[in-house]
Design brief:
Helices cover 71% and strands 12% of the residues. With 199 residues, it is an alpha+beta fold.
């Protein structure tokens, strides 16, 4: 059973690390798109499917009109709403960065648990695992905050934005759940220290 857990933990660590790298690449692509948009907004145009793209030969780089639970109206009549495009890209950069950080913490947590299983020693597990869970919880809650801030900014810069409330609750629930788990492990650490002091 322990061998299967080690294999599963190693696989989860590998997958989380790969996903972290992929998401950071996506963040970099959004940063490039933002720089290009700020440098030459006229180079972006809507294609036949309504996507906002900058076409350069076989390479296209686009501006998303939906980022997680936030939908941004990128058109201003027949033209591109540059303010909306900038807001969409900045929101995407912030949100995907948070997701990459979550995968980073998940990978580190999986590696720590796998090492603990191999060493057959419960010392040193609770504290780092609690820290990983707390950071995951805060990152997920910040996702909710970023989406709300994007909505407020849209109001001030006169950009049409809509947010789906249902999916937002998922970020909050999982964020709070991770924080609670982190608190449980913190409590386990304090109890272990008290027990060690009595021995």
């Amino acid at each position: 059973m322990k061998r299967k857990l080690v294999i599963g933990g190693t696989y989860a660590w590998y997958q989380a690390r790969v996903l972290e790298i992929v998401v950071w690449i996506a963040v970099a692509c959004h940063v490039v798109a933002l720089v290009l948009l700020l440098g030459d907004p006229s180079s972006f145009a809507f294609d036949s499917q309504g996507r906002l793209l900058r076409q350069h030969g076989a390479w296209n780089i686009g501006v998303p009109d939906t980022v997680f639970d936030v939908s941004v109206h990128l058109a201003d009549g027949a033209d591109v709403n540059v303010r909306a495009a900038v807001l969409s890209l900045m929101t995407a950069i912030a949100l995907w960065s948070l997701v990459a950080l979550v995968f980073h913490e998940v990978a580190d947590a999986c590696r720590g648990v796998t090492q603990w299983l191999r060493e057959e020693n419960d010392a040193g597990l609770h504290t780092p695992l609690a820290s990983h869970l707390r950071r995951i919880g805060w990152y997920l809650l910040i996702v909710f905050v970023v989406e709300c801030v994007a909505e407020l900014i849209a109001i001030f810069v006169d950009v049409s934005v809509s947010i789906s409330l249902g999916p937002i609750n998922v970020w909050v629930v999982f964020g709070v759940f991770a924080l609670l788990l982190g608190s449980v492990f913190d409590y386990a650490v304090s109890m272990q220290r008290e027990m060690d002091g009595l021995v």
